[in-house]
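Sequence in, structure out.
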Amino acid sequence: MTQNKKPFRLIEQFVQFALEKPKLTLLLSFFLVVISLCGLPRLRVELDLYDSYNSEFTALVKSWKLREEFNDSSSLYLLAEWDSSPSGLELCQFLKKIDQIEASATETKSIFHVFKSREVHSEPQRYWYPRVLDDPCFHPELKLSDFLKKWDKDGPFQMVTLGDRQLLVQVQFNNEFHPKSVGTWISMTKDPSYKVSVVGPSTFRYYINEILKKDSSLHFFVILFFLFFIRIFMGTWRIGFCYIFTFLMTSLTLAGLMGWLGISIDVLSNNLFLLTGTLMKVCVTASALTHKLQNLVITTAQAMLVKPNA
């Protein structure tokens, strides 16, 4: 039965064309996939929330200006917190670990914490910049609260430290850093003796990247689920593999077209592939149910028309 609405009429016309000219349909589909594959190198994965929305939001525009002014698009802030004021020995071990990570992480540009702060001393014709706080490795018996007594809490860096149980470390990455570097810092600074909290623009990019990875894993398991579902429900593997092949070609075509159109993959558009696979599965299931229902109706009608033998 032909639908009256235009979208349904177009779909019916396309299906009728595909059934009447299958070779031409396959040829056109092949060229469409090839053209789309050429757009895959243009496809970008956008991990920054600020670039995923338009400029109509005033708050985001202000955030862009602040980020450009302070160049804070690749910072990571690590807050280590102990149950009580840590000793100089504990601080020394923590800072040595920070130095080791900095030496091994190639994309780390610089780090800063209160024990790296310096002050200016001067004499005629001479200037030098000693550290404000003593090195905790030389005073293992002291507490963080003892070191902070020299800290000018009314100075311009009063927010660098939040208390005598916490130590804030700022990590600055290169502009073109990979989110994996953020994960390295987060994993290597973990320790049972203290709790680590992380914030900053680079942290957001890291967790968005992890979400995209989990979404990709979810796509894989959904495809496997549909494959076994079709095998159990329809009793054949062939339809399942045809579905997977069609889904992969459709996903590649969709990704290539996104590359040609300049549409990046972000948290929202990444789910288009899962939605496409689910929609195709619904179509396959609906088609199978319709086919079985038609066979059931025809079989029932034939049985009712057959007269019993006298």
